[in-house]
């Protein structure tokens, strides 16, 4: 339903104060995001618009936004989440300057619509996924890279908004890493071979009796199965349960991935 054009979306937190109630720790925080638009593998843009971004150029500009706790009033968006769990995204009123970039025509201003966007981080599969959109009324163009006027831009990134759970997952993840390290070291020691002067090799377990060897084999099998399980658990944590080392940390404990993905969808175009 969408057209992937870039995965280069980056965030920086802006320090602000807010007395408004919030439904999640993401609300009423302001963030500076950088859009890096260009040709990505698998995009449909060149097929629908021949020549689009074929030069390899990029269109890059910033937007300072606020995730509010105001329920969406302009209608929800199925690609983001349920309408009753979607809230307004606004361009920050405290932004020092509008979104802009420099093209072959000089400095260009990027404008967003009155009903700017919405956000939702409800996901049955992964509660750490933050989805939101912005409506770009003016469009933007730099050489052969273009966001067309009245384009809806969708964003997806990871967010960790429960410091207690995040710290628990991080602690468990560190324990898994230590167990993997210990088992890998044990496996390496068990497989150590000693080189003899005559060029032959003997293992360090060669002088054990049959019972000991059978026990050692069983132990190796158990260790191998445990190592496979721990490696799978490690991958699960890294897929979203724990933030990456370079996650952006807000003053209230919220952590957000430093990059994400964006997709564009024309309001009147059934992509």
Write down the overall geometry.
elongated
Mean pLDDT: 76
Biggest sheet descriptor:
8 strands, antiparallel, barrel
Quote the beta fraction: 35-45%
Topology as H/E string? EEHEEEEEEEEEHEEHEEE
Number of helical elements: 3
Radius of gyration: 26 Å
Task: Kindly report how far apart the N and C termini lie.
Answer: 5 Å
Helix content, binned percent:
10-25%
Count all strands and give the number.
Answer: 16
Trace the largest sheet across and list its strands. Answer: 1-2-3-4-7-8-11-16
Explain the overall architecture.
- The chain has 271 residues and is of the alpha+beta class.
- It is 24% helix and 37% strand.
- The protein has 3 helices and 16 strands.
- The strands form 4 sheets. An 8-stranded antiparallel barrel has the order 1-2-3-4-7-8-11-16.
- Strand 12 and strand 13 form a beta hairpin.
- Helix 2 runs antiparallel to helix 3.
- The longest helix is centred in the C-terminal third of the chain and has 32 residues.
- It is elongated and about 80 Å long.
- The protein starts with a strand and ends in a 5-residue tail after the last strand.
Pick out its properties.
single chain, 271 residues, alpha+beta, two-stranded antiparallel ribbon, 3 helices, 37% strand
């Amino acid at each position: 339903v969408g057209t992937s054009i870039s995965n280069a979306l980056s965030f920086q937190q802006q320090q602000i104060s807010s007395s408004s109630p919030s439904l999640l720790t993401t609300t009423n925080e302001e963030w500076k995001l950088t859009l890096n638009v260009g040709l990505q593998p698998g995009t449909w843009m060149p097929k629908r618009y021949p020549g689009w971004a074929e030069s390899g150029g990029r269109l890059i500009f910033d937007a300072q936004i606020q995730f509010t706790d105001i329920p969406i009033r302009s209608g929800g968006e199925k690609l983001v989440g349920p309408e009753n769990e979607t809230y307004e995204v606004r361009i920050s009123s405290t932004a020092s300057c509008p979104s802009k970039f420099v093209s072959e025509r000089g400095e260009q201003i990027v404008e967003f619509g009155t009903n700017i966007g919405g956000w939702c981080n409800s996901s049955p599969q992964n509660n750490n996924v933050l989805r939101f959109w912005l409506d770009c009324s003016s469009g933007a163009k730099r050489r052969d890279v273009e966001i067309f006027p009245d384009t809806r831009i969708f964003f997806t990134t990871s967010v960790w908004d429960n410091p207690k759970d995040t710290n628990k997952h991080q602690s468990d993840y560190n324990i898994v890493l230590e167990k993997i390290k210990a088992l890998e070291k044990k496996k390496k020691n068990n497989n150590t071979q000693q080189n003899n002067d005559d060029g032959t090799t003997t293992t360090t377990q060669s002088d054990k009796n049959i019972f000991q060897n059978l026990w050692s084999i069983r132990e190796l099998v158990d260790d191998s199965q445990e190592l496979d399980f721990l490696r799978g658990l490690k991958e699960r944590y890294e897929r979203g349960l724990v933030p990456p080392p370079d996650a952006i940390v807000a003053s209230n404990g919220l952590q957000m991935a430093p990059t994400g993905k964006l997709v564009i969808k024309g309001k009147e175009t059934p992509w």
